[in-house]
Amino acid sequence: MDSDLARRLAAIVGERHVLTGIECSPYVLEGRTPEAVVFPGTKEEVAALLVLAGEDAMPVTPWGGGTRMSVGLPPARPGLVLSLKRLDRLIEHEPGDLTATAEAGLTLGAFQEALGRRGQWLSLDPPNAREGTLGGIVASNASGPRRHLYGTMRDLLIGLTVVLADGSVVRGGGKVVKNVAGYDLPKLVIGSFGTLGVVVEATFKLRPRPDTDRLVLARFERVKDAGAGARTLMASDLIPSALDLVDPEALRALDPGGREGAALLIGFDGIAEQVEWQCAELPKILGAGARVDTRVLDGAARDALWQAAGALSRTALPEVTAVMKWGVLPTQVAELVESGGDVARRHGLAAAFSAHAGLGIVTAVLGSRSGGSGGGGAIAATSVASALGDWRALVHAAGGHAMLEWAPLAVKERVPVWDPPGAPQRIMARLKAELDPRGTLNPGRFVGGI
Predict the structure, then answer these.
(1) Which of 11, 170, 328, 429 has its CA 20 to 30 A from that of 278?
(2) Which CATH superfamily is domain 315-412 in?
(3) Is 3 helix (H, G, I), strand (E, B) or coil?
(4) What's the predicted TM-score (pTM) here?
């Protein structure tokens, strides 16, 4: 990086907020080191940095907590990493309106702690909440088990401030739950992975914290029995806040000393009497046929199990060589999980699966039980790529879609990260051209090479 550019960056954010050379190593992406990392402290500094990058034809990678940076195609040129970690203030909390506004670099964990002091929370529970930032969660549309009842970021975000590639600051939505109709910038930016603009502030609608929160671990002999249990539960009068299914490999990682089999992780929260009644009714609804046992968890044990479930993509197998996300019909989850395991075994690999069973969202982890074969080797990469290709074909045959969430670069060179976008590609490309005509923001990493 030339000294003139470093000087101009420092003039915007201050010399101590610019990293170059070996200092950039924590921000290496897919083996590529950025030319510089900058830490703006205001949205005006974000705007100035984007203007500078545009003038120098330098690509910009927005960076929150880094928890979802593995998603997407490898960058052709790292360019400038723009970290939002200094934009970490809670700007406004209106408990009476059940709304709050915060800067994009505030972590979800810190946000929840601040809201909790007033008896409220943001009903979103993606993995890595302690490290994940609000802006990164918006950009990646990350969520967790409680999306079963409470939805995703699209249901909770009511206002957004974004800095576009030309440095203009744009606001969409508002600070109240009900807004007039108009162009919906917040929903456009959600899940765009930083390709349309840099999120700097966001306003959310909140909920009162539930009086009681329980997690029921219901074990079954087989995956298909757990799938049948999930369908029975969804057809009942119970209202779970979460309904996850884990296969035997994933359950072994969650509860190493427990009995073998598959399981449902069922969350109930709300008024104490209502939650206690649902926990008592659940065994009756699931029936005694294929069920092995149920266990109700609360407090630290509940939180530990949910955190372990969120980490399964990294811990389910001794060596993880790839992680793929599937979107299928909820009724297909158990059958496809079993078929996906057969596919992995045919390729000499191990697999572990967890799923938001009520929504049809499956996390498929591919790897090795022994940890002995290197995921980066040429032979291993070929085997992994073949298995992933067969997984994608399996999901497509069921009418679903698949995304490669994480894999070594050697695998990404062989397997498409995204499914073909089809007709929506034209609309997405036009939006990108309109909002970022120079292709400054995260170029080439999103669907269709946007």
Answers:
(1) 328
(2) EIF_2_alpha (3.30.70.1130)
(3) helix
(4) 0.92
